[in-house]
Amino acid sequence: MNKSRSYVLFSVLGVLFCAGPTLAQGINTPDPVLPPLDGVYRTPDQVHAQFNGAGLTIILQKPEHQAILRELNLSIGPDEKETFFSTLTAEVNVNGGAFVPAMGNGPVMTMVFGKTGNTTGTFQTEMLSMDLSGNSPFGPFMIRESPTLASTGQTSITEIGGGLYHIDSFFDVFTELSLDGGQTWMPDVQGPARVTLGPRIPEPASMCLLAFGLFGAMGFIRRRG
Prior knowledge:
- The structure is a single chain.
- This protein is an alpha+beta fold.
- It folds into 2 domains: 1-24 and 203-225; 25-201.
- The protein has 2 helices and 13 strands, in the order αβββββββββββββα.
- Strand 9 (151-161) and strand 10 (164-173) form a beta hairpin.
- The protein is globular, with a radius of gyration of 21 Å.
- The model is unreliable at 3-24 and 203-224 (pLDDT under 50).
């Protein structure tokens, strides 16, 4: 087999080998304590939330919600209440205009049922509160978890060896938006929105695809040289 065919075959096999894992959810981490600090919650839907009010239609998409600082994990009988600080980045569209970046941060509180005394297992969860505030090109905003609707989910922690744990997690979150400092709130008309835990950086398979793509390109350049 000549070198040009070898490059093509190797690149094709590389793509087939790497393609599957890109669909994997969850994260692998040496830290099984919740909430996970080395992962990001994203939504699989293009549109995460839509808020209508005061003559405005506001669409939020491509959110990345990340816990960055654990403040308190408190056992309440068999359950664990988690209080932490988080950040949110997203793209926002107002009345059909261009999508622009927005960022907020603030405290979040969750409950993990049956977590006390258990490092691994599958646990039902609920987001008890979320109070984020930030700025965007259209001005300051606040986003909160609905105080009247339950935002539930599930988290699974599995020991996979080598000092690592695999964490799968999702929440179905009802959110509300305020543009006047919390005086009035607009509920998400599409809620709840599901957010799913994934890695902060590109998954190894994505990097693998890039490497094989570069390898194939090198082969093409050599053939042309």
